[in-house]
């Protein structure tokens, strides 16, 4: 072997990484702590229950303290108040979760609101700001707080943003525009965080059978929005979300994954 080749192998030697098997079915979240904003209902609660069943310690966050306490008693999930209008409180929320459970491995942002009772021609700045403040600004600063914690504490964690298939469709409403924003944010944060071992993805459901769109238990899930003819179910979204924040999903990064029946 020539001297140049020998020197090249010495100085360019990389860390040895043996083959490992990362996935243990039904134990993916043993020892892991997850915080889910918007976790008190709909998609967020379905994801919380899914991670809990897989062995995780899960903290659900929302604004309705009474509802959170009720779910805490009913499900065994921990709960904390987290208001996306109050971005200055996010560092404190993260510190409280860590104080209770020792660390934070997974953050899922499922908080969001729809535009209400207006169209493009009647939209006003108050309604526009209400939606954007929660759906985009709140998500941005929540990820900032989580990212600072994970980076400082060398947590090789996962962040998942619950977006919408509307984020890939023409947009005029603040809801649709905010979901377009989440696509860019997902890609930007993934690029920024990957050197620290933190992966960032989004999940983009089509219309899902939750109270956010006025669907309650016992209602029909028929829909003309996709060729399958029905709404997405929260449990279907939760199954995909669980994959993306598990060790099996660590090599998926910066992606917006649609679950919309081909919409």
UniProtKB/TrEMBL annotation:
The keyword Kinase does not apply. Signal peptide: none annotated. The keyword Oxidoreductase applies. Pfam families: adh_short_C2 (PF13561). SUPFAM superfamilies: NAD(P)-binding Rossmann-fold domains. It comes from the Bacteria. Keywords: Oxidoreductase. PANTHER family: 3-OXOACYL-[ACYL-CARRIER-PROTEIN] REDUCTASE, SHORT-CHAIN DEHYDROGENASES/REDUCTASES FAMILY MEMBER. Belongs to the short-chain dehydrogenases/reductases (SDR) family. This is 3-oxoacyl-[acyl-carrier protein] reductase. It comes from Lacrimispora sphenoides JCM 1415. The lineage of its organism: Bacteria, Bacillati, Bacillota, Clostridia, Lachnospirales.
